[in-house]
Amino acid sequence: MSLLEVKDVTHTYGSARSFLPIRRKETQVLSNVSLTVEQGMCMGLIGTSGAGKSTLGKVILGLEKPKKGQVLFQGEDLYTMTAAARRKMRRDLQVVFQDSYSSVNPRLTAEQIIGEPLDNYEKLSVSEQKRTVAQLLEMVGLHAEDMKKRPGQFSGGQLQRISIARSIALKPKMIVLDESVSSLDMVTQTNILHLLQELKNEYSLSYLFITHDIRAAYFISDAMIVMENGRIVETCYDKNDIFTSEQPKVKELVASILPEHPKDRTITGR
Amino acid sequence: MGHQQNALHVKDLNVAVKTPKGMLPLVQNLHLELKPGKILGLAGESGSGKTVTCMALLQLLNPKTMSVKGSIQLHGRELTDLNQKKMRSVLGRDIGFIMQNPMNAFTPVYTIGNQFVETIRSHTVLTKKQAVDLAITSMEKMNLPEPSKLMKKYPFQLSGGMLQRVMIAISMCLRPSVVIADEPTTALDVTNQLQVLRELDRLRTECGTSILLISHDLGVISELADDVAVMRNGRIIETADVFQLFDHPKQEYTKQLLQARPALLLNDQLKRRVI
What we know:
heterodimer; A: 270 residues; alpha/beta; Rossmann fold; 8 helices; 23% strand; B: alpha/beta; 6-stranded mixed β-sheet; 4-stranded antiparallel β-sheet; 12 helices; globular
């Protein structure tokens, strides 16, 4: 049994029932998307903006019920499961979003933010919880003293680490990373990628790594999927295959990778 | 000084912010030389003072809370002596500015055309119709599809990449001799990123514009810049030709920065296909 299985998912937006007697135009954002993610594997999901990556992410998280198709997490359908199964699923499936500022409550301290999933699932004593939060903070490269700080006192990279600490607090099986490193500067980005890599090896986590940056995806993923206009246009079980793909969209994406050295630049205006 | 005069010459720029505990320096003894028709990359981590530098150059910092000292010369003309009104006439006409987030750079309540024409007319004596024509031609040059339709659209109706190209079109239509681009591609996806960089390069070759390109992404710098200045903690620690910097970085920090990027471990055959 695969950890996550997406079967023939189709989704449209803009068809919400309106009280006005006008027909609204439907936009198809996902068409017949199927993919599987095994335990301990990182799947890179690549595409330009508007390709449907984030919608697929939401569908997989159980936040957006697709019009057609099924999402099976550990063999159970996300949208038909019982409340008890759903509660268990919530524990095993976590998410880290791109914008760390909007995914935390600015009025809570780091301790409360990271402690929230623990409050919900683990019945820990006050001192135990404090120790767990401190451990989690150390694990993501922050200090136990940072516990009392609020989001406004952290930088974007630090806050992203807090989001990651929160997502691993319950030792989940899978984390959906939706453009989690895209808004960070190069140095912070690499640090976070290394952190994610370590955590993956330690807990045999699975990731769905959604990004438009092939370089970052290549670093962390085992397999890669490329999306365009709501369809999967290329599936590479070996991530190196992406560079030899004949698919025009994949070629375009690969051609837009910026060079590592100025001698490889494609713009030669001078 | 002849034709070798720098397009933009910054000497001993110091920026400090007033805090209850006294002045906190943000940028110290900054020295920059932007040569005509060249692209100078300014690289550094977030928090190193890149954006503060660029705001100081444009004199957009609030003098009540920030102190800016030093000399900023545009083609030999001192900008720090100018009053606010004179500075306003320089901005937009002589110095163009491209911001990081195109979504925040436009007012959502006016159409693109409205904002475009306002910019043009506040710097020139063109009539409204002439301004509209100029706007349409400069959007055409930016490879934007159907510019006359775009003029009637609101900023939120366009994608980020498209809006960024509209912003470049606005900042270029008055042909400023210097453009300051603060992280112009950070908010864009990879394919749009390359397209925007190409447009910036075209400006330089066609209009001879000098560009100060601020970016944390060394990929962007290596794609476009002629010279690079590396910034850290409010100081420039190394300035060199782009090839020199990538091949023989002098400072330890520059080396770290260069190694920080996740490498694509490609063999030569794959590399040839990619590049």
